[in-house]
Write a structure and sequence with these properties.
The protein is an alpha+beta fold. The chain folds into two domains: about 80 residues, no CATH class; about 140 residues, Aldehyde Oxidoreductase, domain 4 (2-Layer Sandwich), CATH 3.30.365. The chain has eight helices and eleven strands. The strands form four sheets. The protein has a four-stranded mixed beta sheet with strand order 5-4-3-11. Helix 1 packs across helix 2. The longest helix has 28 residues. The protein is elongated and about 90 Å long. The protein starts with a helix and ends with a helix.
Length: about 280
């Protein structure tokens, strides 16, 4: 995002210079204003960008030339720039994950969250490894092909660890529950007394009684040759809970209550009341 905005703002300054405008003036002319409409058609009821530009310009004495450094190879200057964070994420932005166990005790994790340098592949692997109690190097993450990987809303908004990570937890817990169910039959131990530990399902009471995840990966084979369950495949999905549409009337009421020239008086009065209550 920042790289894109750098190019946009540079071009805006070039246009301003050719029009005989300052960087502040061209942004004040074109900034979103109360009652303005966004590129997607949303009417903006409250917009303080113009005031923000004025305050920023005043704070840096925008119209006063910068004092140049003594080093002739350096230049000091002033400028303003504006960024727009698009509130485009829906309330039901969902994530999902699938994890499958293999006979050698490894696992394949399928997600559509994209690692674009933020390290999400590593994070997803670490989350799954912790739930399944196996080494991270035994998990391979598959991303990038949404024809074969499960749904992900978008890799944006600093949401992947939280949302996709929660889906990975759910998928891993699902696989874990299946493993413990099978281990209960295999070991003859109640599932409440079993746990995953270092690549095995282990008895909490008798640690020597255990079965490897690889042995259970394709289900359980009984003494008569019959099979139970089949391959272990964990499924997980997540949507942030209790996210609803904003009540614009309430938002405007809060803005009026906590901003403006009397806001400081209200806050000071509240602090004084709190101190009085504590002292009594």
């Amino acid at each position: 995002m920042s790289e894109i905005h750098f190019a946009i703002e540079q071009n805006l300054d070039i246009i301003a210079e050719r029009l005989g405008l300052t960087g502040v003036e061209i942004r004040k002319i074109n900034c979103i204003k109360p009652g303005g409409v966004t590129g997607t058609g949303e009417v903006v009821d409250v917009a303080g960008l113009g005031e923000c530009i004025d305050r920023a310009a005043a704070a840096i004495d925008y119209d006063v030339p910068s004092i140049q450094p003594e080093d002739p190879n350096k230049v000091r200057a002033k400028a303003v720039a504006c960024g727009w964070k698009a509130p485009s994420m829906p309330n039901n932005a969902a994530s999902s994950a699938v994890i499958k166990l293999n006979e050698d005790g490894t696992a394949h994790l399928l997600v559509s969250a994209q690692d674009i340098g933020q390290g999400s592949d590593t994070v997803m692997i670490q989350i799954a490894a912790e739930v399944l109690s196996i080494s991270p190097d035994k998990i391979t993450v598959k991303t990038g092909d949404t024809d074969h990987t499960p749904y992900e809303w978008q890799t944006v908004a600093s949401r992947i660890t939280y949302s996709a990570g929660r889906a990975v937890i759910e998928a891993s817990e699902d696989a874990k529950a299946q493993l413990i169910e099978l281990a209960q039959l295999k070991l003859g131990i109640f599932k409440r007394d079993l746990e995953l530990r270092d690549g095995y399902v282990v008895s909490k009471i008798y640690p020597d009684r255990k079965v490897s995840l690889g042995e259970l990966a394709n289900g359980l084979t009984m003494e008569d040759g019959s099979g139970i369950h089949g391959p272990i495949i964990g499924r997980g999905a997540f949507i942030p809970p209790n996210v609803r549409n904003a009540d614009k009337r309430q938002v405007l009421a809060n803005i009026q209550l906590y901003s403006g020239p009397t806001a400081a008086k209200r806050r000071n009065r509240s602090r004084q009341e709190n101190r009085t209550n504590k002292s009594t």
